[in-house]
Write a structure and sequence with these properties.
Layout lengths: L4 H37 L6 H21 L23 H14 L6 H19 L5 H17 L2 H12 L8 H23 L15 H33 L4 H19 L8 H9 L6 H21 L6 H18 L5 H17 L2 H10 L4 H18 L16
Membrane topology: Multi-pass membrane protein
Subcellular location: Membrane
Protein name: Ion channel protein
């Protein structure tokens, strides 16, 4: 295992720098598009007309990349997940460009799937050239772990994802041997991002004390409701994707998706734009600042925006917008029943929605727990995950095969 340390650390650092580079470029472009340009024009950056114009323009820009740039920005994103394919080098520039444009333009997707695909492809190509006797799967695991560690700012998330993937394999008591190099890559990725951008997922919700029976009941109900809500999007996914696929051309599919997303933004407001992490921090700063109806509207609109963006061809992942959906759902529960503590509502809502959308049990528990940073909430989440998992297990995934049918 010792010879794997240096390659693992290098892969983790490079994977995190790719993520930070794309995120930084997208952030700078977002500031120009949503602040500088509307200010220069004397209009509101988040006015309904500007949101509509920007989302349609983003659809056109990404459509041009998918149509004209070599490699067409990779495969249909509806067919990909965290377990990324190894792509030819010619595909990667277009995929990075399409991802940056999407992140800056406002569609409700995160960077995780395309950035993992880019890092996996780079690691496999360079790694096999430098060490031709190594296995491709080893470089894939390093790149995935490094990127996931960077995405969440901790190697724990990567360890959980990889251990879940290894659960179906015969590791014969050697789980930690298998995790050794990926954990090193994830640690390097997380540390690099922490030094560069200091990420934090803690929403700083009102502190939660000792759990009671009412808290257990609330977590069970909200997590199950989140799972059922997420399944609505999962079951609708093949049909919405099929509707956009009938347009047959990216310069029709993506602008049409931008039109629908613009209409949804007009309904849900600017907080339902983008990947959602900055926006959930806004919600968490004032859990009582919106009515139950407003939280419900944001929940449904964001879920619909995630569904449309993932169906029409925008390159991006589904985890971060799903976190917004769960957060808004949990705060809606708190607004309806003030006895539901915001920390319980948010964490349980995120848990249920992520279980349905990702079908990644450990990642769902991890993300839900780090949002509130409370050990007592984690106990409730472990119990609440049981009925939620019974609702989602065996159901279709929010990922399609090449023929348009849902993965199971």
């Amino acid at each position: 295992m010792l010879p794997t340390i240096v390659p693992a650390l290098l892969v983790g650092v490079v994977a995190s720098l790719v993520l930070v580079g794309v995120g930084t470029a997208a952030g700078e472009l977002q500031d120009v598009l949503w602040q500088d340009v509307p200010d220069a024009l004397g209009i509101g950056g988040y006015s309904v007309p500007w949101m509509f114009v920007m989302l349609v323009a983003t659809g056109i820009a990404v459509g041009l990349v998918v149509w004209k740039v070599p490699g067409h920005a990779g495969p249909d994103p509806a067919t990909t997940g965290l377990d990324a394919p190894v792509l030819p080098p010619a595909v990667l520039p277009g995929l990075l460009l399409a991802t940056a444009l999407m992140l800056a333009g406002g569609p409700s997707l995160g960077p995780e799937n395309p950035i993992i695909a880019v890092n996996v492809s780079l690691a496999v190509r360079v790694g096999l050239r430098a060490f031709p006797r190594t296995r491709e799967r080893a470089w894939v695991a390093l790149a995935e772990a490094g990127t996931i560690g960077a995405l969440f700012g901790t190697p724990v998330a990567a360890a959980l994802v990889i251990s879940e993937a290894l659960a179906g394999q015969r590791v014969k008591g050697r789980l930690w041997d298998s995790l050794f190099a990926p954990l090193a890559a994830a640690g390097a990725g997380a540390l690099t991002v922490s030094l560069v951008s200091e990420p934090s997922f803690d929403l700083h919700l009102p502190p939660f004390g000792r759990p009671g029976w009412s808290d257990l009941l609330a977590s069970l109900v909200v997590a199950s409701a989140g799972a059922l809500l997420g399944l609505c999007a999962v079951y609708a996914f093949p049909f919405v994707h099929g509707a956009f696929a009938r347009l047959r051309h990216p310069m029709l599919m993506l602008p049409a998706g931008g039109v629908v997303l613009g209409a949804l933004a007009a309904l849900g407001g600017h907080l339902t734009l983008f990947k959602g992490l900055d926006e959930i921090a806004v919600l968490a700063r004032d859990p009582d600042g919106w009515s139950a109806g407003e939280f419900a509207t944001m929940t449904v609109v964001k879920l619909a925006a995630l569904l449309v963006a993932a169906s029409c061809g925008f390159r991006g992942g589904r985890i971060f917008p799903a976190v917004f959906v769960g957060t808004a759902l949990g705060l809606c529960a708190h607004a309806l029943v003030p006895g539901v503590h915001p920390a319980i509502g948010v964490s349980a809502g995120v848990l249920g929605v992520l279980l349905a959308i990702t079908r990644q049990g450990w990642v769902s528990l991890f993300v839900a727990a780090v949002l509130v940073a409370s050990p007592s909430v984690l106990t409730l989440l472990c119990i609440a995950s049981l009925p939620a998992w019974l609702l989602v297990t065996g159901r279709p995934h929010m990922q399609l095969r090449a023929d348009g049918t849902a993965v199971r």
